[in-house]
Amino acid sequence: MPTSPAIPNTLDIIVGSTNPVKISAAQHAIEQYFPDVQIRCSGMHAPSLVADQPMTEAETKLGAINRAQFCQANATSLNQHADFYVAMEGGVDQFDNGPATFAYMAIIHNDTLSVGRSANLPLPQKVFNALQAGEELGHVMDRLFNTHNIKQKGGAIGLLTRGLATRESIYTQALVLAMVPFINMEFFND
What we know:
Elements: E1 10-15, H1 20-33, E2 38-43, H2 57-77, E3 84-95, E4 98-109, E5 112-117, E6 121-122, H3 125-132, H4 137-145, H5 155-160, H6 167-178, H7 180-183, H8 185-188
Parallel strand pairs: 1-2, 1-3
Antiparallel strand pairs: 3-4, 4-5, 4-6
């Protein structure tokens, strides 16, 4: 697509989530590469096939890939087509410098998969302990900061950075990076 001489008038994106933050992040990331193209971005429920709160990098990455592949398979079975199938999966892990949360991005275009990852957001040990006990990050942050449904708003990152970064801004940045193989196909198809 980007390497062809003609850029389409419309791009269709299917996001593996109905969360408005994730849908908006996909829309904003892709429209940065195609500012003069109409972007039609819709979300759908797509199972991650991993735990509701992924606790490792590997599990988080797999969840994002599973969601993107589900979107593509579902669209194919319904004889629909999208230019990009996009999924995001947030997770946590214990690193050398302590626990952190992050997200993996998976984008499928023309049966090619690109995977990206956000930066780490350090987490307080007591938050990580609650996650190890089976809670989800959004619920723990809501309790800690006395908020409601923060995962569909600024997320833990919005709370911990005092609004300097949000879940959407981090997802958008990671998706912009994950798009690189698709907008530079001539370098990635060697």
